[in-house]
Amino acid sequence: MTEEFSLPAPVTAFVDAVNGADTEAFVALFAEDGVIDDWGTTYPGPDGVRRWAGTDAIGAGAHMSVLTAHTEGAVTSTTFDWRSRKFNGVSAGIFTVRDGLLTSFVIPAQH
Fold it and tell me: Where are the domains of the chain?
């Protein structure tokens, strides 16, 4: 639940857009040069963000719950629980914010 953490507004809106299945709101959260990096596969720009939302998140019926969060400057590091038709489990997620928009969301490869 994002309410338990003091998250930057764009990070809270990211979770809300995923959980609300709102692709348009999701894409609008990212800067024009924003990127999603999911285990080393990058999805740059609005088209890439929309593609990831369609295949890995909203289009896969995803639900995201933030478990931990720490913000330092523009970077918020989280652990989150993800449930979808594509992936289920706990992951790390790193958000970077600039001027009220997300410039990146990184899910680092876990070893």
Answer: 2-107
* pLDDT computed for residue 96 by the predictor: 98
Whether 50 and 23 have beta carbons less than 8 Å apart is answered as yes
Write out residues in the chain with pLDDT < 50, as ranges.
1-3, 111
CA 14 from centroid of its chain's CA atoms: 6
CATH number for the 2-107 domain, one of 3.90.950.20, 3.10.450.50, 3.40.50.1000, 1.20.140.10? 3.10.450.50
Contact indicator for 37, 104 with CB cutoff of 8 Å: yes
Q: Is 19 helix (H, G, I), strand (E, B) or coil?
A: helix
**What pLDDT sits at residue 110?**
78
Beta strands in the chain (DSSP E): 30-38, 41-44, 63-72, 75-83, 88-98, 101-107
Please tell me the pTM assigned to this model: 0.93
Q: Report the alpha-carbon distance of residue 54 to residue 28 in Å, rounded.
A: 14
Structure tokens at 88: 């289920």
pLDDT for 3: 46
